[in-house]
Amino acid sequence: MASVQDITVGAAVNILSAVVFLVAFAILRLQPFNDRVYFPKWYLKGIRGSPTRSGAFVSKFINLDCRTYLKFLNWMPAALRMPELELIDHAGLDSAVYIRIYLLGLKIFVPITALAFLILVPVNWTGQTLETIKDITFTNIDKLSISNVPPGSKRFWAHLVMAYVFTFWTCYVLYKEYKIVTNMRLRFLASENRRPDQFSVLVRNVPADPDESVSEHVEHFFCVNHPDHYLTHQIVYNANKLAKLVEKKKSLQNWLIYYQNKYERKPDKKPTTKTGFWGLWGKRVDAIDYYTAEIEKLSKQEAAERESVISDPKAIVPAAFVSFKTRWGAAVCAQTQQTSNPTIWLTEWAPEPRDVYWSNLAIPYVALTIRRLLMAVGLFFLTFFFMIPIAFVQTLANIEGIEKVLPFLKPLIDVKVVKSFIQGFLPGIALKIFLILLPTILMTMSKIEGFTSLSTLERRSAGKYHLFLLVNVFLGSIGVGTAFQQMDTFLNQSPTEIPKTVGMSIPMKATFFITYIMVDGWAGIAAEIVRLVPLVMFHLKNTFLVKTDRDREEAMDPGSLNFYTSEPRIQLYFLLGLVYSVVTPILLPFIIVFFAFSFMVFRHQIINVYDQKYESGATFWPDVHRRIIIGLIISQLLLMGLMSTKGAKQSTLVLIALPILTFWFHRFCKGRFESVFVKYPLQDAMVKDTLERATEPQLNLKAYLQDAYIHPVFKGGEFERPAAIDEEENNPLVATRRSSQRGSKHVTSGENSDVGV
Amino acid sequence: MASVQDITVGAAVNILSAVVFLVAFAILRLQPFNDRVYFPKWYLKGIRGSPTRSGAFVSKFINLDCRTYLKFLNWMPAALRMPELELIDHAGLDSAVYIRIYLLGLKIFVPITALAFLILVPVNWTGQTLETIKDITFTNIDKLSISNVPPGSKRFWAHLVMAYVFTFWTCYVLYKEYKIVTNMRLRFLASENRRPDQFSVLVRNVPADPDESVSEHVEHFFCVNHPDHYLTHQIVYNANKLAKLVEKKKSLQNWLIYYQNKYERKPDKKPTTKTGFWGLWGKRVDAIDYYTAEIEKLSKQEAAERESVISDPKAIVPAAFVSFKTRWGAAVCAQTQQTSNPTIWLTEWAPEPRDVYWSNLAIPYVALTIRRLLMAVGLFFLTFFFMIPIAFVQTLANIEGIEKVLPFLKPLIDVKVVKSFIQGFLPGIALKIFLILLPTILMTMSKIEGFTSLSTLERRSAGKYHLFLLVNVFLGSIGVGTAFQQMDTFLNQSPTEIPKTVGMSIPMKATFFITYIMVDGWAGIAAEIVRLVPLVMFHLKNTFLVKTDRDREEAMDPGSLNFYTSEPRIQLYFLLGLVYSVVTPILLPFIIVFFAFSFMVFRHQIINVYDQKYESGATFWPDVHRRIIIGLIISQLLLMGLMSTKGAKQSTLVLIALPILTFWFHRFCKGRFESVFVKYPLQDAMVKDTLERATEPQLNLKAYLQDAYIHPVFKGGEFERPAAIDEEENNPLVATRRSSQRGSKHVTSGENSDVGV
After folding, report:
1. Which residues of B touch A332 (CB under 8 A)?
2. Which of A332, A674, A750 minimises the CB distance to B332?
3. Which residues in chain B have their CB less than 8 angstroms from residue A668's CB?
4. Contact A377/B660, CB-based, under 8 Å?
5. For residue B340, what are the CA distances in angstroms to B5, B332, B384?
6. Closest CA–CA distance from residue B240 to any residue of chain A (Å)
7. What's the rounded Cα separation, in Å, for the pair B399 and B405?
8. CB atoms A672 and B335 under 8 Å
9. The predicted structure's pLDDT at residue B62
10. What pLDDT is attached to residue B404?
11. CA–CA min distance A375, chain B (Å)
12. Which of A481, A611, B116, B427 qualifies as a cystine partner to B397, CB 3.0-4.6 A?
């Protein structure tokens, strides 16, 4: 077990690195040539131009004004200054609600910490158990934890009562927050401008019809079953290959520009390249000629592919975006079942056009269920067999373990500073490296599962990542770390004894988690604000590719909040805080520092840096809520396990009501709030419809919606929209065109008796 | 442990009692005076009149034709003769699908039994383990079970492979059956006549409005939010007190008739009664005068109450049945969310008028969630603490236990016949008595939970009962029974060791369950067909109350399939069959006999006796399917537990895929079929609407729906319908009346711009 001194060294190292990052940030952000790295959001909004062109040449790149350096922490109050409503307007509801998660952490843990230090710490400190037991090494940190209370003591009543108080407080804050977020979302939806997704429904699994094309089939179906509301629809092309070609062409064009720039700078020497992989081998040729030719070749391929996508009926996937005359009609269609076979004509609320994940729109039902099964099994293996490397890394945390395995390192390790460094820093950072690899794998798995919007993909990946962190970082660190120490005991015990041992080892792992919080939570967040990778990338691009201001605009990489990687990590802190709030309250201040610091950093990033790829209106909140509840229940169960080994078996009876009440609270909140995040109520739709009809009676909705859901590769290029749609528009074969050609008027059609079934 | 001889005695006793019941039935049903007891369904259908009035007086009551007695088992083929489509027409889809559960049991278990006897029985029989172990008593039945295979033997591969084969076969049959039932339901819904529930939606939690009555509020809300589809609505009165008065009056009237009949038969003596409780004490008075006066008093009370219900606005509950112009409109409203607050304006498909459970329509959301929490806790206690009496009863199964507790009974018990009788018969019957008490309690709990239709109440009670049977009868009989025998071992073991012990004791409990099947399944079903209680009740009523043919009609008690008591019991047989199919195949023939016999008996009862109170269109099938899946997964888990104690630990790895695949299969079926039982697809609604519009363009739907959802106490009485509704109809204050007064035309209203929000 690490001593107080180890913790102090760890804290020092991490605080030092955090301060280094912050100072680096403070200096770098003031340099005008970094302006686009640290304030891209303002450029994208068009509020901020390129750095002031007046003044000396040098001051265009480096800030020489010393006074600004003195106020290098100025960004912190600045980040907190923007009021929330303005923030929603500036960065979207997703971002504004996202940073409320950190705020929620503060709201939960500040009062809990205060109470725990007032009541539990004195109770533990005066427990005087650890001194009396021999053959055990303990530290002052352990003396502050529940381990210091003698088994069967009456003092445990304090812990039991506090467990109840903490649970009720957490639930109360969660309820209030759910209510606030719900109202924010409702206000946001009500105040939103007209958006195509308000009128549209994504229809999947359109059944094959031998006599009709997908487009005709969709049109007929909705003309018959939603006669008064159907307006138009857009079919979906399988343009995945085309998208790849476009991507490739863009990269070649970048190389071409690079060589052209090089040539301009040194006109005496024509740049050359090799034809092989990444220009590393093969024949040496003239680079500009080579890339021009390659681009031309690709352009031809692209044109051919474009042609084939548009003309080939097989390139049309059995899915469509169906638009309705009113939001009411769309809300009805999205929420109802269309046919008696629930695996065809699946309708769901259309995602925002930017939010659509185009590759997944064509997966049939059976394939979908099999994919989900395979991914569930895959996730299981990933989650449970990833533990083996983690277990190895964890051995580093145990210095005696290393000395046994690698005895020749003993003299080195015995140096005090090295020992403290290893124990305070290494286990956290090694774990961190493992975790960096993971989110991409999980995102790929979610994509295979077939979700159709980026927001859903992110939410599902976050769910998987959360499970992983729970099993591997939390339980793994407790269980496997202990397993290494107690391998003998474990092998001779029945496997069912493990939970008890896990519960028992919780207090012992407090120091490990404190170092983890410092590395991941403190230094990690400070590293986030420096944006090292985008900084380097921007300057590379700026040097080699940028010619015009537009290029510079494109070279910016504002990035975005990666919900699927960052949210589950926050959940880990909630879990740690809840688990240790009763057991080892000394851990809580570290968590509070994490939440406060993150809140500031991410508020700054949201205001100045990130540019969200889509806006989902905080649909992720139910997930956040649910995971905190899961953490709460885990903390209660572990407390029960711990208590039962503490000679306080009857306390299990006292605690049993907690998880039940917590679960009931979850159900209650789910029923009360969740549907706001899932469904679009008819009343709200009707209000917006009526308002719009009154203010814009002449609106041509059909024209507005026509191109809303075009695959991005068709957007803006040489082709304004695929020709097939125009063709089909004038297709005399489409029989029930009538009602949709009347279309743009808002009046309902008056008689439906002319609709055949 | 019971020996083969005990089983034989048990089988003999039970078969004997079954035969006695069958013979009694065969004789009783042929007597004309019992005709209304055994064929009430035909009377209710109006096909069968009172027994033939021609012929001798005696033959009106007793069947003297000896030939008919010879063919006393004739009802069996007769019951099987009616084709399924006719059966659906005759008895409804609920009943027809219900008996398919028995058929499903046969489809699953007949091939499994054949395979098990071909492969597993020889493998077990030649295992030769039990002979080699000393200090153990075993029977020939145990020699047929898995206990006879030596630990770690390669023979277990046969069991593992068979576990897979049985699972796949069960899933295959379940899938086919789900598909068949789904199609039956779809055909049934499509061919149904016009019914009020097709056009109606039950709206609950109408929020209070200071300016409007509930009725006005409902009307305004739906006029605004469903402007083209809203037709009319019916408010719900809290007539629970009135219903009680009506009930009481009816009982008093019965007494009056009884005394009048008595007086007519013996005009010399005026009948008297006592005024106290049940006429047992108090002042002696003239009975006819007393009851006439009482009825008059009650009539006045009833009239006053009727008046107050209709005029008092507080008697109107915040719920309503809202009807739409088309089935499409109703389907839309039932499936969508109305407002952003999902706890008000809750819409759901209206139950059939007969199916409405009126008392539960007025419970607010928070009260509902609290009630559900309380009932969940209540169910937990009921389920887990009911075990104590069961444990006591189970001790009877252990004859040595009795001898120890009550040594003075030893001489009696040692008589061979008595011993066999106790072991073969008592444990089953004692358990049975416990179970009779239970369903009513569970139904009351479901009522407290606040479900609004009888069909839902039955389904929810069935779920509770299933849990109870699972924990108490199945696990309790295995666990607690063993606990009594192995109390010492248990106390000295950690509680986590219990699952293993449970797995180990499964084969040992096979004989207990065989007796249980014989008592509950064989004799119990045979008792069902005799209908002892309705027989006695009918003759009592017939003697004392019946004066006219109409009275006799009312004296009939056809009863109905009690889904909530009988379905969970069938599930127990599925569970037993699945668990023992691999472990002790000898149990399977007993289960097959149960399924075959029950199928015949219930088919007969459905055709001739039962009169269903409502028709839900087989909405219970997803529950049936899910519970069989639960049984399957339990059987797989227990097999894994059993195998791990058999020195075949690696087999756990082989078996682990089974529950995962089974669970996936459940999810697949749920996605594929369940929504047919929950939602009304728009396409089907549209087809029926269009058809109706074409065939009956002049239909006055509003008149048709006007009185459909009137509380039964208001129906048919002196009040045709509460006056308040008429009043309100002409109320000039209701502003948006327009659209609903246009009402009965089917055309949609043409413009909605006049609808305020």
Report:
1. 332, 336
2. A332
3. 369
4. yes
5. 68, 17, 40
6. 29
7. 10
8. no
9. 64
10. 67
11. 12
12. B427
Question: B58-72, B346-360, B640-654: which has the highest mean pLDDT?
Answer: B346-360
pLDDT at A742 over 50: no
B93 within 8 A of B617, measured Cβ to Cβ: yes
Q: Are A500 and A478 in contact (CB under 8 A)?
A: no
Which of A385-394, B382-391, B687-696, B726-735 is predicted most confidently? B687-696
Closest residue by Cα to residue A97 from A25, A184, A219: A184
Nearest CA in chain B to A662: B373
The residues pairing with B235 across neighbouring beta strands, listed in sequence order, are: B320
For residues A324 and A680, give the distance between their C-alpha atoms in angstroms, rounded to a whole number: 14
Q: How far apart are CA B533 and CA A263, in angstroms?
A: 104
C-alpha torsion A329→A335→A337→A343, nearest 10:
120
pLDDT in tens, A538-550: 777 777 776 666 6
Judge contact between A115 and A94, C-beta under 8 A: no
Length of chain A: 757
How many whole angstroms separate alpha carbon A154 and alpha carbon A159? 10
Structure tokens, A725: 């749609």
Instruction: Encode pLDDT of A494-513 as tens digits.
Output: 444 555 666 677 777 788 88
Nearest alpha carbon to residue A464 among A478, A445, A447, A450:
A445
Find the mean pLDDT for residues A311-323.
83
B586, B139 Cβ separation under 8 angstroms: no
A306, B33, B52, B530 from B72: Cα distances, Å? 80, 17, 21, 13
Do A338 and B186 lie within an 8 Å CB cutoff?
no
Alpha-carbon distance of B532 to B534, in angstroms, equals 6
Of B338, B365, B671, which has the smallest distance from its Cβ to A369's Cβ? Answer: B671
Q: Is the pTM of this model over 0.90?
A: no
* Chain A residues within 8 A of B497 when measuring between CB atoms: 494, 496
**Residue at A556: amino acid letter:** M
- The 3-state DSSP class for residue B576 equals helix
CB contact under 8 A, A757 and B691: yes
Three-class DSSP category at B323: strand
ipTM of the complex: 0.75
Residues forming a β-bridge with B286: B272
Q: Looking at residue A743, what is its pLDDT?
A: 37
Beta bridge partners of B230: B324
Going by C-alpha positions, the residue among B515, B496, B503, B514 that lies closest to residue B478 is: B503
DSSP one-letter code for B148: G
In chain A, which residues have their Cβ closer than 8 Å to the Cβ of B682? Answer: 225-226, 336-339
End-to-end CA, chain B: 75
Which pLDDT belongs to residue A70?
A: 64
**What are the pLDDT digits (tens) for A688-738?**
888 888 888 887 888 888 778 888 777 655 444 444 444 444 444 433 334
Task: Pick B337's closest partner by Cβ from A226, A671, A675.
Answer: A675
**How far is CA A250 from each of CA A244, A295, B154, B704, rounded to the nearest angstrom?**
10, 9, 63, 68
